Amino acid sequence: MSGYDTRASRATQPAGRDRTAPRFIDSVALIAGREITMRFRSKAFLISTGVLMLAVLASVVLGSIFGAQESTAKVAVVAGASAVVDGNDALEAVAASDQDEAERMLRDGEVEAIVAPAASDPLGITVIGLDSPPTSVVRALSVQPTVELLDPAATDPGLAYLVAFGFGLVFFMSALTFGTTISQSVVEEKQTRVVEILLSTVSARALLTGKVIGNSVMAFAQIIAIAVLATLGLILTGQRVLIGGLGASVVWFIIFFAIGFVMLAALFAATSAMVSRAEDIGSVTTPVTMLVMIPYFLVIFFNDNPTVLAIMSYVPFSAPVGMPMRVFLGDAQWWEPVLSLVILLATTALAVWIGERIYRNSLLKTGGRVRLAEALQG
Amino acid sequence: MLELHDVTKRYGDRLALDGVSFTVGDGRLTGFVGGNGAGKTTTMRIILGVLASDGGAVTLGGTPLTDADRRRFGYMPEERGLYPKMRLLEQTVYLARLHGWTPAAARRNALELLERLGLGERTNDTIESLSLGNQQRAQIAAALVHRPEVLVLDEPFSGLDPMAVETVQSVLADVAASGAPVLFSSHQLDIVERLCDDLVIIAGGRIRAAGSGDALRAEHRTERWELLMTGDAGWLRQSPGIRVDEFDGGWAVFEAESDAARQAVLADAVARGEVVTFTREHTTLAQIFKEVVR
After folding, report:
1. What is the DSSP code (8-state) at residue A128?
2. Which member of B69, B83, B85 has the closest CB to residue A11?
3. Are B77 and B18 in the same domain?
4. CATH assignment at residue B67
5. How many Å apart are CA A223 and CA B169, to the nearest integer?
6. Of A288, A291, A285, A312, nearest in space to A301 by CA
7. Could you tell me if B158 and B196 lie in one domain?
8. What residue in B sits closest to A11 (Cα-Cα)?
9. With 90 as the cut, is the pLDDT of residue A37 above it?
10. Fold category of A74-141 in CATH
11. B165 to chain A, minimum CA–CA distance in Å?
């Protein structure tokens, strides 16, 4: 250490070129950066993210395949019957010169049915199938009466269920995955004792903020990646219809998620700071885990119950799922998401304040589990 | 100059620190000695601001410590630990950057220091893959990489092999020589005695003795004398006004009734053989410690 150059007296000299007095935000950025770097280096994280992405992609692609099967059916059209098939969107006509060629195509599986002229039939055609009646072709050729509903549902209940399930699952999975990650990261620092060096360098607030931001960025990036992947998949497979109706609710979901996640992250960090061993994380974070799970089940079971949804959309812990759902269903007035967001912001601020207190007071207490009252008191 | 003024700390009903005051001078290697539970770690944690005191003040150059000042402290906690999965260089650079160093300068400092600590070949190994001795050195690197202006080390020598003890000693001496106050605690009284300029002895949360090693030794010197001569010193037992405490061949430790009796012993010894040593017994830190803690 030749040239160990230091001034023993008070550190009042202006910082040199090599070092500056670190601001709060610099420390937070460094800590958040470390969280993200280490996460990307974790094989478990990379694999689980890969699996999740594949699952999203697979569900979109499978959806398009099952969807496509119903859309158009290939039929062999024997000369004379083409007038009936032309202009029918549900059928794709393949011209056959005569009945024999059409039957060969049917037996080879090139077409699903044959449409042939039949003088004796009142409609003037016969539909020929191979081993079972070709119902989709028959339906496409049938005349259907106009249907009117006196009290139409605004949204298809099946679709509503899917959207509820989607919001619920994405929130649940991300909050739990990254909440657990935060817990592990907090306990790791406590368990390995590195926390004492950190606390002699940066404030507990900077440490907590860096952790929450680092993991929130990761969770958020994952949500965006899922959204982009799903949207791309839907566009590429031609399922534009679904996207149009989702737009506003997805935007609200992302906003609510971003803030709601910060709240949960602070709570996960604070509760985990009360224990010293990774094995104890589960028991101590159970209450927070419940706060994540309950909205998930509620939105799945009660997505058709306006009262439950309305309550959910204002309770901070379920608002990230409940409010976008109501926006999707068209139940929410324009000001409702805004009001709910204000409530969520206030709760998040409170959670961060309490969380920081617990975190700061528990970090150096190793050994047993720190009691909540003790952690709050300091 | 780092000063503690009447610092108190209470854990529930137990008074862990009771009016602790002492000074760590600029450029002085100060040893902090005390039994288990005497309050060393608590004191150091309070200096670093990791723990809040219940009373008193810690000042640097006469004004109360701020968090910004503490950024320029180097600290080695009693509870060792670094991020197990981070690489050595990466970890050291990270800590330097948390202290405000630019990435390039942090890297330069880290490489230089790791090289000096004999970890130059290990910079890309993860902390968990290092041997225990090397993990200890890494811990020292973590305390020094930001070129602290005050150094506080809790038991820096525990768990070190003799080679590492030597390295760390020279590093600490360098830091002190650069003008930084250095405070370190240790159970190994011989190391403290050899290394330190100043000593602070704590027991039961109270400072029992503090000052330069020489002053403490002078204050606690005994009236025992040591003789080493060629031939057998058994005749000493028959000398008038002399009580022999320890004896082994030509070596003896004795107490004399008077200066005259002592001088007579010396004259006798010179007449009987070659005198190698005739001196007041060296007061060891262990003796001082036992005496003040009692």
Report:
1. E
2. B69
3. yes
4. 3.40.50.300
5. 53
6. A312
7. yes
8. B69
9. yes
10. D-Maltodextrin-Binding Protein; domain 2 (3.40.190)
11. 16
pLDDT confidence band for B29 (50 / 70 / 90): very high
| Last residue of one domain, picked from the residues B159, B189, B217 | B217
A1 touches chain B (CB under 8 A): yes
Q: Which domain holds residue B26?
A: 2-217
Cβ–Cβ < 8 Å for A56, A113: no
Nearest CA to B288 out of B173, B206, B211 is that of: B211
Chain A residues closer than 8 Å to B26 by CB: 8-9
B233 contacts: CB under 8 Å, gap ≥ 6 = B227, B247, B249, B250, B251, B252, B269
Based on the domain organization, do B279 and B213 belong to the same domain?
no
Beta bridge partners of B183: B30, B152
Identify the weakest region by mean pLDDT among A71-85, A170-184, A300-314, B35-49.
Answer: A71-85
B107 in contact with A at a CB cutoff of 8 Å? no
Q: What is the pTM of this model?
A: 0.77
Q: Are residues B73 and B182 in the same domain?
A: yes
On whether the CB atoms of residues B127 and B138 are closer than 8 A, the answer is yes
Average pLDDT over every residue of A109-132: 82
Q: Indicate whether B20 and B31 sit together in one domain.
A: yes
Higher pLDDT, A345 or A45: A345
Angle at A326 between CA A323 and CA A330, to 5 degrees: 140
Claim to verify: residue B61 and residue B179 sit in the same structural domain:
yes
CATH number at residue B230: 3.30.70
Tokens for A9, please give them. 């007296």
Q: How many domains does chain B have?
A: 2
Q: Hey, where are the domains in chain A?
A: 74-141, 154-377
Give the ranges where chain B is alpha helix by DSSP (H).
40-48, 67-70, 88-98, 103-116, 132-144, 162-177, 189-195, 213-219, 259-272, 285-293
Residues B23 and B51 in one domain: yes
Domain end marker among B217, B240, B263: B217
Q: Is the predicted pLDDT of residue A139 greater than 70, yes or no?
A: yes
ipTM exceeding cut-off 0.90 for this assembly: no
Quote the minimal CA–CA distance from B96 to chain A in Å.
9
CA distance A229 to A220: 14
The reported pLDDT for the residue numbered A14 is: 44
Residue A15 has pLDDT above 70, yes or no: no
d(CA B174, CA B27): 9
Question: Are residues B152 and B201 located together in one domain of the fold?
Answer: yes
